[in-house]
Structure formats: structure tokens, C-alpha cells
Amino acid sequence: MNDTIVSYISSLANIEFSPLFVFLIFLVAILIIVNVMALIGGLGTYAERKISADIQMRQGPNRVGPYGLLQFLADGVKMIMKEDIIPTESNKLLYTIAPVLCLSGILATFTVLPFSSGFILSDLNIGIFYLLGVSSLVGVGIFLGGYSSNSKWSMLGGMRGASQIISYEVPVTLSILAIVLIAGGLSFKTLVSGQTGFPNGWYIFHNPFTFIAFFVYFISALAEANRAPFDLPEAESELVSGYHTEYSGMRFAFFALAEYMEVFVLCGVASALFLGGYKVPFDLGGDTIIGQFLQIGSFFTKTLLLYYVVIWVRWTLPRLRVDQLMTVCWKYLTPIALFNLIGTAVWIWAFDGKSILSLILSIGASGSAGGH
Q: Is residue 372 part of a domain?
């Protein structure tokens, strides 16, 4: 049976829950995750504007609430009150479900995202494949949003989004598989449990190939999330607003919320795969309630630091052209990711799966023994 938040609470309380109580626990956990992620998505828009303001030496939001902190709530109220317009010549069914597909695809990924050893909705034994599969709904939603709007700008943005997301899934998947080879499993708990709370035990420093794989994954993840310098599907300089040009009100808000939540998911996956995930130094707290809060704090700290880097990159680098975008993917990132995958397999075979630090320490220990 897969580990879930219910199985953790059951083992902690030493109680076998009834099906109704299991349903209620899952319902509460889902409500907590959805509301926290919606809050993070809203605060992501605030952070985006504040960080960009700092980079450009200006104020940013500073009117609504202390330091402009409630600006995202004002934006939410504005979106709710705006008129929901559907273009006359659009495909109304596809136009309506496109933003829902984007948001649903992102929300579904939180099923396997490991916030801590106990707080995970379901630790599927094919967690990586599940995550890659459901996240593909975002690409479908973006394409349908552009196609159904009956607008040239939206159509171009949708085509760009589809080609970009499908292309960059290749280096992302190859980089993830390099870590799967080392961990020996596809579940997120297996991937995290092979690491430690200190950087010397993280997979990013396991060998030179995984170190490069982290940067290949991170760059490809920026493209998958349509983040600058890869934000071609919504390039306002030539496409007005890209695939969501014709959207207004809450449907537009769903697209924006899905983007900021997707950034959190991609950073969370990077944290789990390469940076130790929820692991805490010295395993402080263990599997106790206090330990769970420490693990959640560790996971969110690493993830939000990467989130900051994503925003930092957006306001630092200029946008690529479409041909440059595809060149980076197929001529550089994909061959490098494939080379890393083969290199990782060879490393595991040649050094019995040991990390480069373990090899250095063993060589040092044998050298000192020989000296004596």
C-alpha cells in the first residue's frame, strides 16, 4: 500500500480509521494544500513586482496594506468583479475548459509532492511518471486557449506554447531519470530518502553529471513554465498577450494562478530531486509532529529560494527568439541531458553507486592507513 498522510496519522495515533474518517482527513489535507498554494500563487505576483522593483531601483506595490502586501487580494477582487467576456466566434466549450485544464493539471501534481515524510497525499510508486503525465495537461490547456479564441495572436501563442512545452519535456525527463537511476525508484519518498539534511548528501553533488543535470532541469523547467527568457507563448511585444489575449476576469486569473503555482511545483521537484527535499540536518525531530513541521519548513525554504531565482532570472535576461528557443532545446540541452543520463549510469556501474565525496574520503582513509 502507498504511504499517505492517512497512513502516517494512523501509525502515529496507532488507530485504524474508518473509510469516512479517511475521506475527511484527505478532504482537510486537500483544502489546506489548495488554499496554501493559492496563497503562494497570489503572493508570487506580489513577490514578482517587489523583486523586479528592487532590481530596477523603484518602489513596487506600496499602497494596499503594509508594504503593499495586500495588493494580490485587491487584484483578486478586481478579477472577480470584471466582466467575463466570451468572443462571439470562439469555440465556447474549448474556450471555457482551457483555463480549467491548466489549473487542474497543476493542482493534480500536489498529490505526489512531498512536503514532509508524513505530509504527502499519496506516495505513488510511479510518482515521477504521474507528475510528468498530469502536468502535460497544462500544455493542452495553453494550446486550446489559443486555438479556441479565434484570434491570430492567441493562435500563435498557443502553437508556441504547445511546441515549447512538448520540446522541453525531453531534457526535463532525461535529467529526472538520472536521479532515478541513483535512487533506484520512482516514488518521491525513495528519491528523497537517499539524501541527507546536509549539502554533502544531496544528489546535486553526487557526481559531476548530476551537478550538470540540475542546471539542465532548471533551465528546461523555466521553459516549461513559460517563464522569461522563454516566455514566447505570451510575448506581449509581438503577440499582445499571447494565448490568453481574449480572456478576461477569473478565466484570465486561472491562467495566471496556474503559472505561479507551476513555478512552485517545478521548484519543489528540483528541491526534492537535487537538494535533499524535506530532509533536515541531523534528522531533527524524526517522524514526530515537531519533526514534520521542521521538514515542511526545510522543503518550503529550499523551494522558495529557487522561486526567488526564477523571478530574478526573469528580470535579468532578455527574451529569446523562437528559433533560438528550439536551438537551445534540441541542439544543447537534450544532448547534454542524454550525456548526463549515460554518464550517471556509467558512474553507478564503475563506482558502485558511491558519491564523489564518498570516493574522496575512502581514498583519503586508505592513504592514511597505508602511511601508518
A: no
